[in-house]
Amino acid sequence: MQRYFARVIDVKTLGKLVKEYKSSVWESILKLNDLEDFDAIWALKADWFEGPNIRRGGWSGVSRIRLNTEDGGSVAVFLKRQENHNAKSWLSRLRRGIPTFYREFKNIRLLTGLNIPTLEIVYFYYRHNKEGKSQAILITKELEGFESLAAESYSRNSALMQDKKQREKLMAAVAMNMGHMHSQRIQHRCFYDKHVFVASINDCWEVRFIDLEKVRRTLTRNIAMERDLYTFSRRMKSWRLSDKIRFFKMYMKEEKLSSYSKAMWYKIVARLRSKGKI
What we know:
Mean pLDDT: 88
Number of domains: 2
Largest sheet: 6 strands, antiparallel
Low-confidence stretches: 1-18
Shape: globular
Structural class: alpha+beta
Number of strands: 15
Distance between the termini: 57 Å
Number of helices: 8
Strand content: 25-35%
Helix content: 25-40%
Order of helices and strands: EEEHHEEEEEHEEEHHEEEEHHH
Strand order of the largest sheet: 3-9-10-6-5-4
């Protein structure tokens, strides 16, 4: 493989440079599918799952592919590729920005390290080619069996949402994982229903958070929670106000809200009313 200049700030130690991440769990599967290196993956012909996003002076696109496994089966993954699709940051002033997939890669690893449920990384690589264009690949395992809270299954009149027991178990699972994320001072900053994936497994609700490009660590838990709770309440159009109050109580772990919690809830409600969302 031809050598290229590539720089990625390691997630655990700033200053330690890596150019490639390949999950040891997936290494043999990539090899089986002749996708062992960047050039092979970059050249793979695959239909777009979502049309390419052409902006930031470059392009970014997503494909869904199936990889053969050693047991004769297959597994679905999402293959993301981009070129000159960079985001500015203080780390990248001398490098004309970093690929947006790098932010996602970094944040997936951050959340995984903190036991916050999210995507599973298969492969990541970031380089500059001979023409000086930044190129990045990010492959993640499909969340098989999961659906986002924006799916029809979770609409207000769906059978699931009419089942009070299941609705409350689902709300409790989302509240618990959201609370854990905020306890680590992690703010999603784009906490929409379509970015929360859930699945009922053995009568328990599993939760996964996606779309992590804007994730950041905050100084305090309060800073992390206030914006995300407001955004989630605004975006959960399928929930009645009573559901949103119940969810908030679950999140705060209070059957009767404290003065502090009431003040925060009234602040959220005031913002919702100003946007005409209740």
